[in-house]
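Batch manifest, entry 17 of 40.
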Amino acid sequence: MRIAFFVNSIAEETAIYTTTALALAAIARGHDVCYVTPGDFVLRPDDSLLVRATTFKSGKIKKPDSFVAALRGEQAEIQTIPIKDIDVLFLRNDPSQDADERPWAAHAGIIFGRLAAEHGVLTVNDPDGLARAQNKLYFQGFPDAVRPTTLISKSIEEIRSFIDEQEQGIILKPLQGSGGKNVFKIASSKESNLNQIFEAVSGEGYLIAQGYLPDATAGDIRLFLMNGRPLQRDGTYAALRRVPADGEVRSNMHAAGTAATAEITPEILAVAEMVRPKLVEDGMFLVGLDIVGDKILEINVFTPGGLPDIAALHGVDLSVDVIVSLEQKINMRENYGGKLSNRALATL
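Output type: structure tokens
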């Protein structure tokens, strides 16, 4: 099996990324791995789709640091190959990273992922589902019971009124964004710097304001779902608690958050079960839920991270289980002669 990982930029890949762990797990199981970036697709006049894939000349690399170095070093080579020579296209880019400086690149994975799926390549997460999830408005399609009280607006008057209605204050952030960028906790509509915060965040488009959950001071729980269900092996869940740094409202690892073990309670499993139907319907193969109490703060469907941290905490590499699931899907596709849709196959 050949798996192509679609990422923003090979130069920005690191040893601690979940994509790296997935690639190494695939290599360990005897699969071929290549990387593809937004500028690597070629659609020829005869409608044949090709990719300029970064591959390795030889050798089975086992260590994350060595893998990333090889990906960017002399061991790497670029080959232009037909898309049909790829079994799985794994879309692992973060569109928000390209939205400002390379807007053409932000949705290349979705656009060409659709074409790849039409050519018979298993494409996960399903590109049509990802097209519906390009900003945090996607979250509003899930049951009210799992969502904090939320306002989406570009009006500072609306936001001031919303703050006054929330006893614990609010979290304000861009509707489009990731990694904890421009996330603020606001306790009162009378805060002196509210206008400056509003101007900073609204410059990126619409704002999303959520009622603050006091339990967030202890961090949130990142729980991976695969095929709509919690990813786990023998009772060890693909989950961690993301603990914010002192004085920091964000628990993102990019914002100096740290990883700790997480207890997966029946209440958390109930939250996961509540969002399962829509995730399955949308072909969301691998997803990260960010949970506080019995509420979900975000659903990361593009590039959820944390599997290497979970492996370090528990000594269980659940990246392997992800690759095994992809192997099973390829077998299903062959057994059914390509009659299963990409969206259905993505979550079977």
